[in-house]
Each structure stands twice: as structure tokens, then as C-alpha cells.
Amino acid sequence: MTDLLNYLHDVFIVKLDAWVLLGGIAQAFFTMRFVVQWIASERARASVVPVAFWFFSIGGGVLLLIYALHRRDPVFIVGQAFGLVVYLRNLYFIMINGREASVPA
């Protein structure tokens, strides 16, 4: 039990810095995108992807890319950079086709 407590203290207290806070905020953006998608789907009683999903995806993706660049993690960098292309492309389609493109037919 002491080893677990020491581990948790090291991870969540000792290692806490501005970069970890940025990573946490970025992760909160990603969590919010699923929360807004879930709420929209529950209200519609169907699977719905609201525009806010893509904005939270972009916000979280940009912040996580910055975090990954700082951490110098090539797998994380490539994954976030690719994700940003997808999120921006989806938002572009919504903008040129109108908001109705973001909800089911």
C-alpha cells in the first residue's frame, strides 16, 4: 500500500508542473467533446455529432500537440497532428455545406 501511495504522490504531486496542467486541460477538452456528443445524442434519441464536438476536438488536439512537442514524443506528435487534419477537414465540410451536415439525415 505504501508503494502505491508513493507512486500516486510522485505522479500527481511531485511531477505537477505547468506542462502537466496544460496536458490536463487538453484532456478536459477531449472529454468535453464526448460529453456534448452524448448529450446531443440523448436529446435527439439518435447518434448526433454536434459542431461543438469538432471545436473541442480542435482545441484539445492543438493543446495536446503542443504538449507532445514539449515531451518530444514522436508517436503522440504524429497522432495529434493527423487528428487535427481530420477535425479541421470535418469543420470545413460543415462550414461549406451548412450546419445540417453535422446531424444525421
Percent helix range: over 70%
How many whole angstroms does the radius of gyration measure? 17 Å
The profile of the biggest β sheet is: none
- Total helical elements: 4
| Average pLDDT for all residues | 89
In total, how many beta strands? 0
Oligomer: single chain
Q: Regions with pLDDT < 50 over 5+ consecutive residues?
A: none
As a percent range, the share of strand residues is: under 5%
Order of helices and strands: HHHH
How many separate domains? 1
Gross morphology: flat
Structural class: mainly alpha
Terminal-residue CA separation: 53 Å
Description:
The chain has 105 residues and is mainly alpha-helical. The chain has one domain. It is built from four helices and no strands. It has helices at residues 2-14, 18-44, 51-71, 74-97. It is flat and about 55 Å long. This is Lipid A biosynthesis N-terminal domain-containing protein. Residues 22-93 form the Lipid A biosynthesis N-terminal domain. One of its GO terms (biological process) is lipid A biosynthetic process. InterPro entries: Lipid_A_biosynth_N, UCP028440_lipidA_biosyn.
Could you list some keywords that capture this structure?
mainly alpha; 105 residues; single chain; 4 helices
